[in-house]
Amino acid sequence: MNWHQRILSIVKRRKKLLFLLALLIFLYLNNSSLLADPPAGKPLLLAHRGLGQTFDMAGITNDTCTATRIHPPEHPYLENTIPSMRAAFQYGADIVELDVQPTKDGQFAVFHDWTLDCRTDGSGVTREKTMEELKKLDIGYGYTADGGKTYPFRGKGIGMMPTLDEVLSTFPDRSLLIHIKSDDPQEGVLLADRLGQLPPEHLDRLAVYGGDRPIAELEKRLPQLRTMSKASMLRCLLQYEAIGWTGIVPKACKETQLHIPEQYAAWLWGWPNRFLSRMEQAGTRVILVKYADGFSGGFDRPEDLKDLPKDYSGVIWTNRIDRIAPLLKK
């Protein structure tokens, strides 16, 4: 190699290094929260299933009956009931999440489990019952904190399984997050028919998430409704990881909702301040969730709040709104 070629080779290497350096500087300046003000506003609190009994998450599976492993009760509320939702809002919840199951007679019951055997004095598949049958059950029947020695909620949950209509009429001016527990597309059609009867201002306060197929049907029929499924969230996050470093928010991330596991949030371009600002401008709600053993958990203890970014302004998922709301208000 003569001296002309050596000089050209050195120049080319330096150009590559300068380009790489410039790219790294751009990535830092465009995504560092140290150089960005946090979005205005205080964090919002989402009460998971209202205010209910919590349980030990260690080793649970999809088939675990969580009612048989609750912590010693500290309050009288059962999840997914109108009293539990009312209490959650009174403690300071901005959003209440609830689960729905379709019934044999075309209604929606507000209940978490696919079957009745764990929590209630009934048995069988929830969706194979009429709402009249479900209303006769004691939804507190199966709860125990001492391995079955005592059942502190037996007899106290009779007739307390609400319909979705009852919840919507009780809280018409509150924000609700509805969880479809199945991947049945017909459930999305049925829910769209029901929610489509609401006035626009009421619909604006609702959001729905769940299985890919029912959410897809819901989106077709109510495109103005905020929705999320696993597929839509993955589509958004994968596209954002590909181009988000530029500051561009892909269309898949606009006007939607994202449930972000707290332990993975730091991998998002611009986390936290720039990411939250970008999603806010895109009309997307960011909900920070804790996960335990692969299951969604919440910011339920005072020490959990230490894991929140400074000046965090998104939504915080909690199972203990009674504990967390007073701390955040301070």
From TrEMBL:
Annotated Gene3D superfamilies: Phosphatidylinositol (PI) phosphodiesterase
Occurrences of domain GP-PDE (ranges): 63-328
Single annotated GO MF: phosphoric diester hydrolase activity
Coiled-coil region: none
InterPro entries, alphabetized: GP_PDE_dom, PLC-like_Pdiesterase_TIM-brl
One Pfam family of this chain: GDPD
One BP term from GO: lipid metabolic process
Transmembrane segments: none
Entry protein name: Glycerophosphoryl diester phosphodiesterase
